[in-house]
Amino acid sequence: MVEWTDFERATIQSIFSKMDYDDVGPAALSRCLVVYPWTQRYFGNFGNLYNAAAIQGNPMVAAHGKTVLRGLDRAVKNMDDIKATYAELSVLHSEKLRVDPDNFRLLADCLTIVVAARMGADFTADVQRAFQKFLAVVVSSLGRQYH
Amino acid sequence: MSLSAKEKVIVKDFFAKVSSRSDEIGAEALARLIVVYPQTKSYFAHWKDLSPNGAPVRKHGITVMGGVYEAVSKIDDLAGGLLTLSELHAFVLRVDPVNFKILSHCIMVVLSMLFAEEFTPQIHVAVDKFLALLALALAEKYR
């Protein structure tokens, strides 16, 4: 089981309680598709992903970004058993969606960059460490059911 | 992966725009490196003060950022232009190249924090590529 310090728990709850999921989700996913264009392979039916402007204006990308953030919320609310919380989602990503688990790490990095932009100076080094630890647990749990 | 002519312009313009705060960027990025990735402290065991806001860390962050700016000025031939730095990292410092990626991430987090509006996805991808190519140039002499 992952050990969380009081600071880490409080930090994660604080970040997500102040976050606008409908802003951050689309921003993080669209950034991922621009910065790591090979991730577009999973979104063949999303229409126009031809350039950065198209990606950032694409309503299906925005909708899916919100879906992903709402999925992340489950881990925020179950920090003491993220592995079990994501068991089903892990199977889904492995067996049905067939997403290379390294892509979870890429999206996590983009999410960190977006949250840093939103929080500015409040995104201190200690806050960053807590946030990245949380995302690392999420990424690991999502990759857990791959065989 | 190589930088297009357009991306080189994006990188040069962006780094010129943020140059007045380059010391702050460097100091903050290195502080984050050792806080968020404590294993990197292994390279600085010879410093008495390893606190993120202490003088040695901040000073070294400024040095490193100076190197990044030197690379920007040599963006048309990174491997050739950074030969001396590559030899330093290969034979003297022997920094495991995985740490270049980690530091690049920390630099970009700081850029995103300080220049939220400017660090758009289009600029992010060009800077990410540039830092990756810089890392490759630094590792040129490793083996």
TrEMBL record, chain A:
Domain of life according to the entry: Eukaryota
Classification via Gene3D superfamilies: Globins (1.10.490.10)
Keyword presence, Amino-acid biosynthesis: no
InterPro entries linked: Globin, Globin-like_sf, Globin/Proto, Hemoglobin_b, Hemoglobin_oxygen_transport
GO cellular component, one term: haptoglobin-hemoglobin complex
Domain Globin: 3-147
One MF annotation (Gene Ontology) recorded for this entry: peroxidase activity
Protein name, entry field: Hemoglobin subunit beta-like
UniProt organism field: Oncorhynchus kisutch (Coho salmon)
From TrEMBL, chain B:
TM region positions: none
PANTHER family registered for this protein in UniProt: HEMOGLOBIN FAMILY MEMBER, HEMOGLOBIN SUBUNIT ZETA
Record-linked Pfam families: Globin
Name of the protein this chain belongs to: Hemoglobin subunit alpha-2
Keyword Cytoplasm among record annotations: no
Entry GO terms, CC: blood microparticle; haptoglobin-hemoglobin complex; hemoglobin complex
Domain of life assignment: Eukaryota
GO biological process per UniProt: hydrogen peroxide catabolic process
GO molecular function, one term: oxygen binding
Keywords annotated in UniProt: Heme, Iron, Metal-binding, Oxygen transport, Transport
Family according to the record: Belongs to the globin family.
Domain (Globin) ranges: 2-143
Keyword Transport in record: yes
